[in-house]
Amino acid sequence: MVTPISPERAVKGIPTISSAAINPQGTAIVFVRTKADADGKKPESQIWLCDVDGGNQRQLTQAGKANAEPVWSPDGSAIAFVTTREGDQPNAIALLSLGGGESKLLTNHLLRPGDLQWSPDGSIIAYTVPVDPDNPEEKPRDPDADAPVRITSRADYKQDGLGYINDVRNQIFLLDVATEERRQLTSAKHGHLRSRWSPDGKTLYSVIPNRGGITSRFALIDVESGDTELFGAEEGAIGLGSWSPDGSTIFLSGDENTDFHSDYYLFDVATKSMNSIVRDVEFTAHGFVFFPGAPVWLSDTSVLVTGSSRGKSGLWTIGVTTGSLDEVGLWEASSVGTSTSNNRDIVVQTTNSNHGYAGIATITIATGERTVLWNELEEFLTESPVALWELVSVERNGFTIEGWLYKPADFDETKTYPIVLDIHGGPQGAYGYDFNIFAQVSATNGYLTLLSNPRGSTDYGRAFATAAIGDWGVEDWADLEAILDSVVARPYVDAALSGVYGYSYGGYMTSWAIGQTNRFKAAVCGAPVFNLISMYGSSDLGYHFLKHQIGGTPWTNFEDYIKHSPSTYVHNVTTPTLIVCGEADDRCPIGQAEEMFTSLLALGVESEFARYPGGAHPFIATGPYTHRIDFLERYLAWFGKYLGANT
Amino acid sequence: MSHIITADRAVYDLPVIGSPRVSPDGKTVAFIRTVVDRASGKYDAQIWLYTFDTATRRQLTQPGSTHSEPAWSPGGEELAFVASGEGDHSHAICRMVVASGETSVLTRGEKKPASLTWSPDGETLAYSVLIDPANPDETPVDKDAPKAVRVTRRIDYKQDGFGYLDNVRNQIVLLQVGTGERRHLTKDSVDHLLPAWSPDGNSIVVQLPNRNGMLSRCGVIDVATGAIETYGAADGEVDVAFFSPDGSRLFVSADEHGGPHLSGYVIDLRTGAMTMVLNDPEFLIDSATASPASPVWLNDSTVLISATLHGESGLWKVDVDGCNVTQVGLWQAGHGELSLPDDLTFAIQSTNTLGGTVGLVRIDLATGEKSLLFNDAEDFYAKTPAALWEKCPVERDGVIVDAWLIKPADFDDSGSYPLIINIHGGPHGSFGFATNLHAEIMSSRGYLVLLVNPRGSTTYGSAYANAVKHDWGGTDWADLEAVLDSVVARPYVDPDRTGAYGYSYGGYMTSWILGQTDRFKAVVCGAPVFDLESFFGTSDIGHVFGTEQHGGTPWDVREAMFERSPSSHIHKATTPTLIVHGEADERCPIGQGEQMFISLLKVGCETEFVRYPGGYHGFTRLGEPVHRIDYYDRTIAWFDRFLMADAGR
Asked: Which of A199, A307, B413, B488 is least surrounded by Cβ atoms within 10 Å, i.e. has the fewest?
């Protein structure tokens, strides 16, 4: 018998690689490696450097445990990065000269800066940092003082992961690298993300997130005066933009209606007009908050973009004058980034895959040839092998519904196994070919684990991504049942031992599913959306998200809010259910889980409620080790009790 | 305008007098005087002693700790009390020899003990204290480690004021006065409150609340074995219970269905029979939790109770065998708590009243004569006179709806005043003759403040209190409007400058009002119940209270809950509304305020949302002083902006 991946190893034992960036000369790659610190209590991030072929790896930073976001100076002689040290203003921007010597702290802040961008001439670093207009001096709060009263009159007064923010927003600062003087460029009551310098260094492009970041526009900001002009649809979403080499246009991805499927546009700076270049591509553009990877101008007429299609990660080139779209490559992996050197011959991405590897990949743009420089998971998977999987699919109502059936590493088709249906968040999210820690733990501990992309998922085109809008829980749930039915029919699946798990929209769907069917012997429901009416007013983005997803407001579309709320069907539930939720979740607030738990207990349904103090919405991925391990152990224990794989 | 009672003064300069305990010989009264220390901004509660002979009072304990729960030893030489400081194990149970002031610490703990009670032989103190079965030794937690995951399977896993509890519940602990040795008498993970000894010292009677205190029974515990015998209906309420002098019976105030109005019962401990001796009185028997006033047996067949009738405080003698009730006295005042000396000839109560009294009263039980021992608010109201008041009841549907109109101390009936209707919580709460700080503050600034007891209010009998069940926002809102209409018709009320204020159920009602009328120019809505369905699942008491008040769960009576939810009518709101809410409120959780705030913004209604970090449901009365001041100031500013702007003030 092979060793399953334990929750503790899954959480602490897997190093992650992020922020890979190739130097302008194309000879070296800088990246961040994060792994458990020496006493195994917290993650530690350090900046590393390797040759472009992955050789000669060496650690560049030693001080501090949170070094991140390395960016090359335009001449490739130095790296700026963000770091955390001790002190009253512990968050700093540091500069490391590759010529040798210690890194130098350039400027300090109370809160953590990010989005470092060198000006074209290398004299200035633009960055963003949260600014509190009530505390411009960035004084640390007296821990003994009463917490200040919170007064707001704005709808976006809180945001998951940040908590109560009111007018605290990311503002752009300009840091003079030589003098170490800084100046605050913006002070509007909206945030700023991912600034990009115009080639002449006079203007910054910046994404302007609104409504908790679910919508965004973009701004052009005059570097001298700070004068700002906003563009883009008020309720649309704008991705990362990229200035053309001559500075006359900006290539960007965007979405006019918050429908989670972007098109590509060319913005003409002189005429301030947006011109559609390519519409309705079959892949989901990267370049939003979660998947950085800005478009790259390969020439005056061609742009390289990254995205994902049917769970695969890909690169494409777009002809900005012709509107042509050509695939560079599409790989069974989850990859992030579009770092290129000055001569634009290769792209560097961080990558991970359910084939059992993770690390850095280089892709030759001309040929699509891809090399994974090393496997960061090699040591980890030597001790406990990667889960097996196969791609499964069903046809339903004109769509192909795909899924990945994960199996124990020592899967034996002559035996029978319990099965867990694992439902992703969103609904406009997607599963894919990534190295999914939750699926790995579930499958290697004895559960067939089915991850599927029902309609509403991204990665399958606009019609598919928008199919769940106005229809939550109906056709998408039918898709999930159809693919589950097709797998459960297999001889090695014990149909009587099936469970369901989901988090966020997956939690919505889990709480929905157990009100629709009693087929599941157990459910694990994470951070659910349970009651759409209370969700509307208590989630950080409820008032906007549900307006688009359900329609209108609870008072204009009451029947729709009732029809699609799991709470409406909760009296049908008999499935023993574990509910998990972070207590500081502002996305799917714990009130949703409380409503569900109270209802289940009042109905006499067996239920357990695990609350994670301080946990924001993504705590199962980014929270303290102890909480993440607890979650995975609790998942295994709950399914173990009712489905019994691990007993 | 002179004589303004600022929020700062109201919070800092007005003392609170409570926990009076007459010494067994009847010569002195120990009590707690609480003020807010200006330097630290923290509450400072000290034990004082009033001496009848000299009519003087002196402080017994010293600053540095706050004090509570004074309890005389049976012989009357010593006081036991709780002293609470800072740091680990910050709560100490102390004993003081009153004559010398010599004080010793008997034991220390992490949680604050309550209801210290001496055994009849003076050797043991019983008390209740929160015990975590996962950490019975109260080992301090590692503050640097991530907080422990909270895993629960019980519906009453949290409670307002305490937050997450799971199996943490009040247990009865016995403390040997001589040795300081402690023994945990109870272990079941339910609350055990208000211990009282049997005359022979062999038993202790306790209240056993469940469902976060919405329901309760009582239990008699055998001190030797810890075995417990329970009494009372499973879905009912038993408030306080006390042994008769011969130890054979218990008097309890109780209701088979959970109140809000309780009847009097006697439990015969030999037969277990529970017999009603006081059937559905019109007065509301003071409860152990809201205004701790324990019934007292005057002899083996007579019980003295403190109760409130139509907002007035009174004492009654109940003949538990003849089932007669005799009034000792009824006063236009707020009285609380009840303490008698060994000879049972008089009673001491704490008092605070409209018109500016804070102190202790002595009531002679033979004559019903009441005397004020002292008024600790004399200085306060000398500088800023208390508001004037008049009763202004209205008859509607054949029922008298009681009300008070609070007026500025310098009221002039030729003037024209803005008016604020202040709506009480509950719905089973009531206004009365007790001091109303909000009304004092607002009237001192030139507002008329209207206090109404609409249907649903207590102190008018159970039929009146229960009239609001299944009818929230119906007949009670009609009652409120009827009284309001009658007062607004008066020449000195400016009908164009009216506002509404309410907290808790008053917050329900103000948010309800927003969808019913545009008559108000401004609303301040505190800790509202806004959406009855989400309240059911998120409030600590929603699963009991929601069902009891609306006739079922959301899946049983969804239409009715929807119809009576302010959220269903909020799109009609136009009145500028300030929402104030404690972020740690588990009774009316902040999600209610959040839903309301977002709704008002989306319908284009002017609104501001004020959140108090760490604030529980009672924060406006007992929370951080700076938060209380902020809360009052913000309320003042909101009403001033919309009701005073045109008045040239």
From this structure: B413
CA distance B148 to chain A (A): 7
Residue A40's alpha-carbon distances to A3, A12, A274, in angstroms, are 21, 7, 51
Cα separation, A279 vs A284, whole angstroms: 11
B552, closest residue in chain A (CA to CA):
A602
Residue B1 has what pLDDT?
45
Q: Is the pLDDT of residue B247 over 80?
A: yes
pTM over 0.90, yes/no: yes
- Rounded to whole angstroms, how far apart are CA atoms A127 and A319? 31
The pLDDT, as a whole number, for residue B291 is 46
| Residue at B504: amino acid letter | S
Residues 6+ apart with CB under 8 A from A63: A83, A85, A103
Residue-wise burial string across A218-248, b where 16 or more C-beta atoms lie within 10 A, e elsewhere:
bbbbebeebebeebbbebbbbbbbbbbeebb
| Residue A291 DSSP symbol | S
- What confidence score (pLDDT) does residue B76 get? 96
Candidates A164, A91, A155, A174; CA nearest to A132 is A164
pLDDT at residue B649 above 50? Answer: no
pLDDT in tens, B106-134: 999 999 999 999 999 999 999 999 999 99
Burial (0-12, 13-18, 19+ Cβ within 10 Å), A181: exposed
Q: Are A223 and A242 in contact (CB under 8 A)?
A: no
User: How many Cα atoms occupy the beta-carbon half-sphere of A284 within 13 Å?
Assistant: 31
- The closest CB to that of A626, out of B146, B157, B536, belongs to B146
Tell me, what amino acid is at B232?
G
CB contact burial A538-576 (16+ within 10 A = b; e otherwise): bbbbbbbbbbbbbeebbbebeebbbebbbbbbbeebebb
- B144 to chain A nearest CA, in Å? 11
**Interface pTM (ipTM) of the complex?**
0.94
For CA atoms A241, A244, A247, A248, the dihedral sign is: negative
CA atoms within 13 A on the CB side of A414: 0
Q: Are strands A493-503 and A417-423 parallel, antiparallel or unpaired?
A: parallel
Q: Give tens-digit pLDDT for B142-199.
A: 888 899 999 999 999 999 999 999 999 999 999 999 999 999 999 999 999 999 999 9
The letter for the amino acid at A546 is L
Residues in Cβ contact with B389 at an 8 Å cutoff, skipping those fewer than 6 apart: B354, B355, B404, B405, B406, B407
Band the pLDDT of B518: cuts 50, 70, 90: very high
Of the partner residues A534, A601, A612, the one whose CB lies closest to the CB of residue B534: A534
CB-defined contacts A:B, below 8 A: 163
Residues of B in contact with A164 (CB under 8 A): 611
Give residue-wise pLDDT tens across range A553-594. Answer: 999 999 999 999 999 999 999 999 999 999 999 999 999 999
How much of chain B exceeds pLDDT 70, in percent?
98
Alpha-carbon distances, residue A94 vs A241, A505, B24 (angstroms): 26, 39, 74
Q: Report CB contact under 8 Å: A613, B146.
A: yes
Chain B closest-CA separation from residue A565 CA (Å)? 12
- Give the strand pairing for B249-255 and B237-243: antiparallel
Give the integer Cα–Cα distance in Å for A364 and A344: 9
Tell me if A534 and B145 make a contact (CB, 8 A cut-off): no
Query: CB distance from B143 to chain A under 8 Å?
Result: no
Query: If you write DSSP's letter for every residue of A321-338 in order, what string do you get?
Result: TT--EEEEEEESSEEEEE
**Strand order in A448-453's β-sheet?**
A388-396, A399-407, A448-453, A417-423, A493-503, A522-526, A577-582, A607-612, B150-152
pLDDT of amino acid B527: 98
**Cα-flanking dihedrals φ and ψ of residue B582, to 5°?**
-80, 135
Note whether A204 and A126 are within 8 A (CB).
yes
Across the interface, do B533 and A534 touch by the CB < 8 Å criterion?
yes
